[in-house]
Amino acid sequence: LIVVVIIMIKMFVEIDKKAGYLQIPYLLWLVFASILNLSIIILN
Asked: Number of structural domains, the chain?
């Protein structure tokens, strides 16, 4: 999912830079959620 969002952001930036940059918080949230899920899996 993270890879797809990075590709989406690159495509958005080509069309409208502002729209692409507004997707960066979504990418950061996905990274945070992935790290959180991985840490929970490791602890269990």
From this structure: 1
